[in-house]
Amino acid sequence: MEDIIVLTLHRAMVAGTPLLLATTGEVICERSGILNLGIEGVMAIGAVVAFIVTMTTGQPWLGVFAAIAAGMAFSIIHAFASITLQANQVVSGLALTMLGLGLSGMLGKPYVGKPLSIKMEDLVIPWLSDIPWLGKILFTQGPFFYLAIILAFASWFFLERTRLGIQIRSTGENPKAAEAQGVSVSRLRYLSVIIGGGFSALAGAHLSISYSKSWIEGMTAGRGWIAIALTIFALWNPGRAIWAAFLFGGFFVVQYLLQPLGISPSFLAMLPYIATLFILLLISLKDPRKLNAPAMLAEPYKRGER
Amino acid sequence: MMIKIKTTDRYNITTLRSFMTNILSLLAALVMISIIFLIAGVNPIYAITEIFSGSFGSFYGIKETITKAIPLILIGTGLTLAFRAKFWNIGAEGQMLMGAIFATWTGLTFGGALPSYIIVPLIFLAGFVGGALWGIIPAILKIKYSINEVISTLMLNYICAEFLTMLIVGPWKGKTRFGFPGTDNLPDPAILGLIPGSRIHYVTLILALICAIVLCVIIYKTRFGYEARVVGENPDAGKYAGINFLKTGLILMAISGGLAGFAGVGELAGIHHYLGYPASISSGYGFTAIIVAWLAKLNPLYTVISGIFFAGILVGGDAIQISLGLPAATVEIVNGTLLIFLIMGDYFLNHKITIQFSDR
To answer: Does B310 lie at the interface with A, CB-CB under 8 angstroms?
Structure first.
């Protein structure tokens, strides 16, 4: 029994890792005032690029870097449409998702069903991994897990404590005032969208080269959308995103745990999505003001307009 | 010499200008798609010709295109209303499936005993109710609990798809399916008639055209349509004017969801005749219809044209998959590119751009 619990929690951390990465990226992006609904597509691009590069070069970290670069470049499309051309961000994000899923399907077609032989070894943290229960759950994990947590903390520090981070937040809350302070709103928004894209692509890389070690079309399976919900759940705070993401990782894993008990697999597959709605409802019931997004989220900014 | 680019807002947007902008955006998208095809090692001129000759170039292609246009017109029409109120309904897939589920129950329960002219309207009514219910949930969540409708409609898509799967592998599994998931066929009176030699279920086609006209009247000629537009364009003014947001939101999402439900009934009773896997019933129509509505500039009447256009891309996409061995995702690339260029084109519709050359 103890083994099952430890194993379940261990897997919940693994399943939560891509959610945390994508959520952190979306938090940064939304804090600058840009809603990016395209992260499902960026994730798919990241997954396929990481897989192809890793498979051809045999270097997983090269795959990761290629994925991040591809994700950043790909999200410039959304940045250009929504910042420079002031397009509707909801529709632009959807278009990015369609395009990302499509392009990844086309790029990855020759690689469907080919297993990746490279193994990313778990990093066993000395001393800490000897702690009963916790050691196995938290300190015997793949590199992506630690990376996701470090990046989430770093992003929190970046947004709350650094000058650039504060400027990014101000472009999301009050771009006019930010511009009056000499900040270039569009430049910071570009930066935030691109950083967010890099994070989503990293999440995708985790899926294809570490989590499932294979590529299939549509393997992101709605995780990008869940990350957008988690951004709200985390109240636009990367620190809160950490436990939010791992809680949802748990919803993914509990499916496999409960399946042997004869519960319908389809019902269990619904769980993460029902939980998303339920938790948003709970936050809203408890304190609706908390759901306050960055004031200028999804509002195009026109320079010089009074 | 200096080049100065100046942009100014454009206020008088004529229908002609709007139409031309769309055409130019589509052409620009076509260039981009050609580049993507080139990179993928496919001759773009050949591929694009194949897409359009596959869909509009033969009698068979045209029949298939009209068949696929039916759900796109229905859903797209409903989306124009929702999008005008800035209600981002991404959940048409789920609403369509819920419509099909309600219609299946109605058809299997009453279909054997009732004549066609009663059971067919009845399953369409059931489908509308199913889609409307699934559309009302996000409306309540948004207006009463300020939960973002993009998230809720998407989550409801997944939930409905799993719910449907649960039904067809469990309690609704048909005896005639030899153990495969799916319900039994609907009884004959509930099956929609086809135009001979095609798969066009004409009842749904006529319904789609009527809906497009009715929605046009609702949006432009009724108080409710006016209120829906105010809610979208200027919610503060709407509040002062005493518009009941909850009521408006519920009605418009009931209509939007209900029309998606109609589309689900059409696919069920006109094409498949039984409830099978969710992906086979909805086949992405709910997402493609978003582009249909956008290309139609959120005018329900124009969704008829843009619906046929995108149905053509779906049919042509199937054709090049077979002839060029391209993956199914190709259609998504085409759709995504078209959508991006359409929204980018809006900038040039709303802004006047002048390039000035000066010696200073």
So the answer is: no
Task: Dump pLDDT digits (tens) for A246-290.
Answer: 998 998 888 777 877 878 888 888 888 898 899 889 888 887 666
For residues B57-75, average pLDDT? 95
CATH code, residues A2-112+137-291: 1.10.3470
Q: Please, which residues 210-229 of chain B have a Cβ atom closer than 8 Å to chain A?
A: none
- Give the list of residues 6+ apart from residue A305 with CB closer than 8 angstroms, or none: none
Instruction: Give the pLDDT confidence score for residue A304 in this predicted structure.
Output: 61
> Is beta strand B2-9 parallel, antiparallel or unpaired with respect to A140-141?
unpaired
Interchain proximity A99–B337, CB inside 8 Å: yes
Q: Using an 8 Å CB-CB cutoff, list chain A residues near B329.
A: 101-106, 109, 217
Range of the domain at B72: 43-325
A91-127 tens-digit pLDDT: 899 999 999 999 999 899 889 888 888 777 787 888 8
- Residue B342 inside a domain? The answer is no
d(CA B360, CA B357): 9
Q: What's residue A306's pLDDT?
A: 43
Residues of chain B found within 8 Å of residue A297, distances taken between Cβ atoms:
none
Domain chopping of chain A, boundaries: 2-112+137-291
Contact of B353 with chain A, judged by CB distance below 8 Å, is answered with no
Query: pLDDT tens for residues B248-305?
Result: 999 999 999 999 999 999 999 999 999 999 988 988 899 899 989 998 989 999 999 9
Q: In this complex, do B155 and A92 lie within 8 Å of one another by their Cβ atoms?
A: no
Partners of A140 in the beta sheet?
A124
| Overall number of domains in chain B | 1
How far is C-alpha A25 from the chain's CA centre? 6
CA-nearest of A108, A10, A94 to A50 is A108
Cross-chain residue pair B332–A274, CB shorter than 8 Å: no
Q: Does B25 touch chain A (CB under 8 A)?
A: no
The whole-number pLDDT of residue A290 equals 63
pLDDT digits (tens, 9 = 90+) for B218-257: 999 999 999 888 888 887 888 888 888 889 999 999 999 9
Q: Which of B247, B243, B217 is nearest to B230 (CA)?
A: B243
CATH classification of the domain holding B265 = 1.10.3470
Question: A99 to chain B: which residues are within 8 Å by CB?
Answer: 332-333, 336-337, 340
B327 and A105 within 8 Å at the Cβ level: the answer is yes
Assess A157–B contact: CB distance below 8 Å, yes or no: no
